[in-house]
Amino acid sequence: MAGISSPETANVTINKDNNNSGAVGEEVAAEGLSFSAVTLRKLPHLTDYLPKSDLQARPNPLERNEFFHPTEGFYILSSDVILRQIVYDLSGTFPSTFPRLAYHRAGPRRDIYFDPANVRVAIVTCGGLCPGMNTVIRELVVGLWELYGVREIYGVVSGYRGFYTSEPKQLSPKMVHGWHKRGGTVLETSRGGFDLKKIVDGIQQRGFNQVYIIGGDGTMRGAVEIFEEVRRRKLNVSVTGIPKTVDNDVGIIDRSFGFQTAVEMAQQAINAARVEAESAVNGIGLVKLMGRSTGHIALYATLSSRDVDCCLIPENDFFLEGKGGLFEFLERRLRDNGHAVIVVAEGAGQDLIPRTDAQSEEKDESGNPVFLDVGGWLKSELKKWWARDHPNELFTVKYIDPTYMIRAVPANATDNLYCTLLAHSAIHGVMAGYTGFVSGPINGSYAYIPLDEVAKEKNKVNTRDHKWAWVRSVTSQPDFIRT
Ligand SMILES: Nc1ncnc2c1ncn2[C@@H]1O[C@H](COP(=O)(O)OP(=O)(O)OP(=O)(O)O)[C@@H](O)[C@H]1O
Ligand SMILES: O=P(O)(O)OC[C@H]1O[C@](O)(CO)[C@@H](O)[C@@H]1O
Ligand SMILES: [Mg+2]
């Protein structure tokens, strides 16, 4: 059989009408090379565990929607896939050892598995803030209402704990109308409070049958557990995750929503740091940006600003004193330019900062380690260094910590559009009966990815790739390798 196989079953029988299994893979001849086997990630579907009698496929109401005129190609088939990897080296061992992982393409299906009149939706936001959370909520509400005619839509208040602690808020398009212009989350969010039994009991008691979970990596791990418990209880409930994280630390998808807005906001802090540094004798502008365990915001803000002399991220260890260290580099930069700008991600240098045992063990309510302020520590180390080595020369460090200013803002236009597409993709997938999945762009096209896969994969800065080399070429900063 030529075609696409799912990882669970090496040779899936191809069936164009089946919403839920492998898809058709034509042999594609390319310059004499044959792409014969593509591995299609199996997407959980309600039909996997519920009896057929409980589920009735029905035509998509978009068919009758006066604003849509579904034509050939409008509906996505189970044979429409997005390839995970699109860059290949055609030399060497091609094609036998080349992984060609594929995901189902996101979008409306011809048949749906929910009667819109009986749909009861729960939307929840968890974890830290991120630009665009309100846009996703707004677009879920408006999309469910306008595209599918769903009327029972509820916001679960204050994160996971809201499933068992408070009454959900009923939402309508009129109510959420201007939410995309507001930062934060109108539904409120929180960390911790994940009690699986109580959450799933809450879902059952309130009769929710579609659950949209907006959150970061921790939230996605929680969503996997909810999905598995729902499946274990054989509930007719579809669970989907919409990845949110200003840190951009969620894997597989191209980027997370709100990230671009945060990078844009960071420019203001970097500009201010440059102005302060330039206007002082031996001036250093120091900016701390978010990024708990990943330095994406710091990296992108550095590349887009071009005013940064040194970018410090958690993925790349650094040191202060000695040959090849930060002080030696800054000494040179101050001598050559008279000023320098440093961008440091909050998770960088944590192993260098002295701390008490209590500080080492401190965790937030979700169990994430609480970091010490790398910016404050660096400022004080810089001052000590200068006072020791250049006691008679002027020196200024201006430390700017825009932490919450870069995330507690409304999404920019690009992120707003992105949030809309994410929300609508999620709705189409859920209405089609898929569950335990995440929607997101892979190589620019929207795909459905199994939740557990997203929950497992972390997106870290690859300090071996061209982007990091580009940062280094822009800043000429050292590699921080001790010799
Ligand atoms: N491994 C896990 N299993 C179940 N629930 C989890 C897990 N990790 C975190 N959670 C729950 O998910 C919610 C959000 O987690 P967390 O505070 O880590 O934020 P996040 O989703 O990672 O977002 P961000 O880090 O971008 O702010 C919390 O309610 C937390 O209890
Ligand atoms: O202070 P809070 O709300 O716990 O959030 C801080 C954390 O949230 C994030 O914005 C997202 O994970 C991190 O960059 C940061 O460490
Ligand atoms: Mg997180």
UniProtKB/TrEMBL annotation:
Keywords: Allosteric enzyme, ATP-binding, Cytoplasm, Glycolysis, Kinase, Magnesium, Metal-binding, Nucleotide-binding, Transferase. Pfam families: PFK. Residues 1-21 are annotated as: Disordered. GO terms for cellular component: cytoplasm. Transmembrane segments: none annotated. Pathway: Carbohydrate degradation; glycolysis; D-glyceraldehyde 3-phosphate and glycerone phosphate from D-glucose: step 3/4. Mg(2+) binds at D217. It comes from the Eukaryota. The keyword Nucleotide-binding applies. The record marks G218 as: Important for substrate specificity. GO terms for molecular function: 6-phosphofructokinase activity; ATP binding; metal ion binding. Catalyzes the phosphorylation of D-fructose 6-phosphate to fructose 1,6-bisphosphate by ATP, the first committing step of glycolysis. Homotetramer. NCBIfam families: PRK06830.1. This is ATP-dependent 6-phosphofructokinase.
